[in-house]
Structure formats: structure tokens, C-alpha cells
Target: SGNH/GDSL hydrolase family protein
Amino acid sequence: MDGARRRIIQTSAAAAIGVALALLCLPLGVYPKLACAVLDAGCPADGEPRGRLPQVTRLTAVEVAQSGSYVALGDSYSSGEGVYFLDKEPVNDGADRCHRATGSYVPLVAQAYRFGGGTAFYACSGATSRQLLSGQYGQQPQISRVGPDASLVTLSIGGNDAGFTKVLTGCIVKLPWSAACVDQDAAVARRIEQLRPSMLQVLGELRARAPNARIIVLGYPRPFPKEPVEDVDNLTAEDQRWLNGVTRRLNDVVGSVAAEFDRAIAAFGGPGSVEYVDAYEAFTGHEVGRPQPYLNGLHVDMEELKVDARSYHPTGEGYRRFADLITKQIAAGPGRPMNNFQLATP
Model:
């Protein structure tokens, strides 16, 4: 009778263990340890103590971020375009084409936290969401730099999909009395809306490659004062308000896609997260035209008669502000419990 009862208990326990593994998304290697502890089955010959269950611990947001490698992707607002001219030599392979700079927020984030797998910096100036997947300048795609060991991914993306550089150029080179700036509204709105499926594809690829990682998406700062009163770089107050509005709309789309994706992860109890950092108000008091701007204004190379790439990109102070936003987000987490777990053998 005792033997039959024991077999019934073992069978029930085995079923319970299987359900727990499925719900918690624990590694398959956990099962033998639980089987040994609960069922007295499959124990190694040299034998760990029987009857003691391994401890399953839910990781904090910071523990998740630091558990593997930090991979920094994105466009010029992540690569450091605004301060690239200050570097004496490339920070890594391809940095001379992608304008990755030591003054970007990425090295500052890497210094603020200790990442178990180190840091990989591959953001590239000019990147669109599609180029994040396909590559630029003969370099391998940024997405390919992400592997299963990645625990934190940061990126800024969408500005080039919206054609922001072209839009801004059209606003600056217009005739002073022209409405050529705001007349771009319909085309810009269409490009911003088309960003949604591309963003979803990028996030899906990142999740497939690094299913346990926290993905932090950084928005863009408002470039001009909330209530501009003076012309700046041939941009009227109306032009500045419109460009601020374009930035807000772009951020809203990026933020909503990130939020929707994270809700899906949480609904299925999956590990990792997608988090959005709204940087729209981050440069308040330091916009273009202010005494101490966090964005470069218009810079023209008079020898080549062309606009310098650092124009309307963050200054060193701007990138430090970005670093502050991201380090705080790493500490704060996604605003919900992480579904990443660690198994400790007793």
C-alpha cells in the first residue's frame, strides 16, 4: 500500500513540475534537479541531498540588465554624431563610417553599470529601421550583433524613417517668406505612420535573438523652445512649433509600438521587456537658440559649402542627459515585475 501511495504521489508531483516548468519558462535542465529532489529519480551517482528543492528567484530589473551583455544600436542620436568630430580615432571597426563617438551616451551607460558580458556599441548614423536589419556602408546589420547572451539593448530609431534631416533642410533653405517648411506636413505624417510595421519587425527580431533582454527605446528631444519667439537658422517661430510637433508625433508612434509590444510580453508571462524613454522634454531650457543648448545648431562647412553632419544633433551635454535618462530607466525597470528567473541549487 505504501509503495502504491508513493507512486501516486510521485506521478502527481511530476505533473505539477511539468506545469511549473511550462508556466515559468524555466530551462529544461531544471527538470532533472527537481525530479531528483521531489521524485528521488534521476539523481547523480555522487548524489546531491535528496528532498531539497532548488530555489527559483525572480530577478530584479537591474539584475536582468546586468546578467549578460549590453548592446547599443540605433541611429545618429545613439552613435554620437553631434560629438564625433571631437574623436581622434574610431572607437571600433566601422566607427569612421557610422560616426560612433566616445562622447555618446553609450560609454557613459557602460560605465554606470557592470554588465556581465561587456558592451557592444554598433549604432550607426543615418540608420533607418530597415537598415537596422539590412546593414549600411558595407557593414553587417546592426541586428546581427545581438545574441542570446544580450541582457540589455538600447536604441533610438525612427528619425530617418520620417526623413527628419531632409525635412529640416527643406525648412532651413526655403525663402524667408515661404511656407515650404510646414507644407511638408502631409508627407511627413505619412512616413511616420508607416514606421509602425517597421518598428514591430525590429522589436520582433530583437526578441527572437535575445528573448531574455530588456530593450530600451529612446525617444527624441524637442529641438526648439515650447513657445519660440525668435527666428533661428532661417526658421520662423511657426516653423519651430511645427518641427516640435513633428518630433512629438514621431515619439508618440515609437512609444505606442514599444508599449504594445511590452504588454504582449507581460500578457504571456514572457521574460525580458520593451521599455520606452520619452526624451521629448529632456532638453527643456537647453533647446536650439538657448544660451546653453544641448543640441548643436546649424553648422556649415564653408570650405565645402555643405551642412556639417553634427547640426541638430546632441552636444556633449545632450548625450550626458541621455545617459542620465537611460541609467535611471535601467534602475526603474518597466513598471511591472520581470519574468526572468534564476535557479539556485541548494
